[in-house]
Amino acid sequence: MSTRTSTPATPLVLHYTVRECPLGQVLVAATPKGIAAVLLGDDKTQLISDLQQRYPQAQLDTGGPVLQRWSDTVLEILAHPSLQHVVPLDVLGGTDFQRKVWKALRGIPAGQTRSYTELAQAIGQPQAVRAVAGACAANPLAVLVPCHRVLRSDGGWGGYRWGIARKQQLLQQEGAIA
Question: Is the pTM of this model over 0.85?
Answer without folding.
Answer: yes
